[in-house]
Amino acid sequence: MTDQVLSAAVYRPTRVRLHRLWRPLVLYPLTIALSLIFIFPMFWALMSGLKTPAEMYAFPPVIIPTHPRPYNFVEAFTAFPFALWYRNTLEVVILGTLGTVVTACIVAYGFARFDFRLKNVLFIITLATMMLPSQVSLIPRYVLFHFLGWIDTLYPLWVPSWFGGSAFAIFLMRQFILTLPRELDEAALIDGASYFRILWNILVPLCKPALATLAILTLIANWDAFLDPVIFLQSPQHFTVAIGIWYFKQQEFQVTPTDHLLMASAVTSMIPPIALFFAFQRYFVQGIVLTGLKE
Amino acid sequence: MPVSVSAHKPSVLAMIVGGRTRQEARRALWGYVFIAPWLIGLFVFVGGPIIASLYFSFTTYDILSPPRWVGLANYHRAFLEDPLFWPSLGRTFYYAIVVVPLGLVGSLVLAILLNQGLRGTNIFRTFFFLPSLTPGVALSVLWLWLMHPQLGLANQVLRTLGLPPSPWLTDANTVIPSLILIQLLTTMGGSAMLIFLAGLQGVPRELEEAATVDGAGRWMKFRHVTLPMITPTLFFNLILGIIGALQVFTVAFVATNGGPDYASWFIALHIYQQAFAYLRLGYGAALAWIFLLIVLLLTLINFALSRRWVFYRGGA
Question: What string of pLDDT tens digits covers the 316 residues of chain B?
């Protein structure tokens, strides 16, 4: 009895004090250090985009340029046909995202609200396609687009999005529609509304958060796409930004040193996804979480 | 009354689309109408191509002339004659075996840090997450400079610390570790971390408090309460992590182009080169099918093993 009281009196304060030190001495410094390490390469890229060629090749390396040159960004934009490449990328990204959002919503409605033969089998097949490496369908898709006359056009990059988007998109929308009360549809049905009207007037307005999430994730995935464009596009006037920068990188040693411009164009290509992230942060996090947890 | 009769007798339509009554059959038909875009997409852009590539894998095909049946020649060539096939597969596994566990543990540690209720958690989360939004090409350009053997900042840091500089991406022995480092610093704070964070936030507080009352320390609580509760998220991230890592392509293609001396020549680069640089579509399809079978096998093994360690709260 006395031992216990004694030990409590002696040990508890030390434990409490250690517990108090854990946060300021371990957790905060560790988290701050890690977040600086993670963000540093992006900061460094931005700084390099503002450097003069001399600072780019300086030894020891310069981190913050003494005379920042924002003009690099303009010069990079005109040194290569980036205006055209951005236009192409926007076309792919907008049409691809629109197709994904519209058709994934329609297909997800079918999976969420109707009972039909083979529904579960088809849905499981749909989920299973998420686990296939894209390389395995690449060659026949190339053959298909070749015979359609679509190689070296932007069509292969966005037309497939109009057929349900992707398994991921359908899954995301279905999960969301399942959370909406079925009574809403049934009431409208009794009032004589058609299924399309129910989808459009009742479900779509309620799905706005999920649609926003899907739109953002699709925009970013399309912006980042590399393997498909590098295979389906051949001539520089049809390039997207990602392929353009790759092309720029391959050309650059034949011309004057333009590494600072290459860096500036890389930084420019990083801006749209980051801007989207900051504008729609809430939807973003929700969407990733929604797909990750409901298995 | 013909109407009432047909309402009880299954129609041809009902036998195809499902449903016991005419009304249910009609509704089932509507279901098919709504999923029709995906059925076409699945057939034309996913399922059909996978079957077609199986066929191509038994042919030589350069798109200009019709495919010519060669039986198992492409597989024979991959397994026994192609000097790049086995090494490219080996490199891909080396990369994945390092990057997947480190990435998972790293993402989990970051998520745990974000789950401590620290002040400024939103800023930390943003800083961890932003690098994962960098497009692969921009990432390659950026890291080629950071890891430049003479002028790069990475070696400057090593020199300042009194360590010997590394050749990074320019040497056969260091190129894969360098690519692993790039991958980890870019994606550790990405979607896997956010999914872990959501998983951690879903662990009932009462359980952890009960463990504390029972005298469990920090590690015991994590090991015996938190970790079992988040095994479904761990499994989800593991599956996607393995599939993603085995497909490693963009940075190796843009930054090192498979080099130096084929040291970063991963299987995805090999498929790309055979199929699209040399237009050996039949051989490329065989490589892609071998790759598909490997990925499928690994995924199935993982699902089978998951019964032993993944804990679903619903009991499913």
Answer: 344 444 455 567 777 777 778 888 888 899 999 999 999 999 999 999 999 999 999 999 998 889 999 999 999 999 999 999 999 999 999 999 999 999 999 999 999 999 988 888 889 999 999 999 999 999 998 998 899 888 888 988 899 998 988 999 989 999 999 999 999 999 999 888 988 988 888 888 888 888 888 888 888 888 888 898 899 889 989 998 999 999 999 999 998 988 898 999 999 999 999 999 999 999 999 999 999 999 999 999 999 998 888 887 654 3
- Whether the CA torsion B177, B183, B189, B190 is positive or negative: it is negative
Whether residue B48 contacts residue A129, with contact meaning beta carbons closer than 8 Å, is answered with no
B152 close to A61: Cβ distance less than 8 angstroms: yes
The angle at the Cα of B170, spanning B166 to B175, to the nearest 5 degrees, equals 80
Identify the bridge partners of residue B69 per DSSP, sorted by sequence position: B59
Touching check for A138 and chain B: CB below 8 Å? Answer: yes
A105 and B CB contact within 8 Å: no
CB-nearest to A137 from B46, B152, B189 is B46
Which are the contacts of B194, defined by CB distance < 8 A and separation ≥ 6? A285, A288, A289, A292, B111, B129
Sign of the Cα torsion B75, B79, B80, B86 reads positive
Instruction: Kindly state the tokens that stand for A46.
Output: 């931005």
Contact residues, A window 194-223, toward B, CB-based 8 Å cutoff: 195, 220, 223
Tell me the C-alpha distance between A260 and B216, whole Å.
55
Q: pTM for the whole thing? A: 0.87
- Scored b (16 or more CB within 10 A) or e, A126-164 reads beebebbbbbbbbbbbbbbbbeeebbeebbbbbbbbbbb
Beta-carbon separation of A160 and B41 below 8 A: yes
C-alpha dihedral (B154, B181, B289, A295), degrees to nearest 10? -140
Q: Please state, in angstroms and rounded to a whole number, the distance separating the CA atoms of residues B17 and B24.
A: 9
Inter-chain CB proximity A277 and B133 less than 8 Å: yes
Q: Tell me how far apart the alpha carbons of residues A241 and A268 are, in angstroms, rounded to a whole number.
A: 10
Is residue A134 a contact partner of residue A141, using CB atoms and an 8 Å limit?
no
Give me the interface pTM, i.e. the ipTM: 0.85
Nearest CA in chain A to B26: A116
Q: Does B123 touch chain A (CB under 8 A)?
A: yes
* 3 state DSSP class of A27: helix
In angstroms, what separates the C-alpha of B312 from chain A's closest C-alpha? 10
At B310, list the tokens: 């993944």
A126 in Cβ contact with B30 (< 8 Å): no
Q: What is the DSSP letter of A254?
A: G
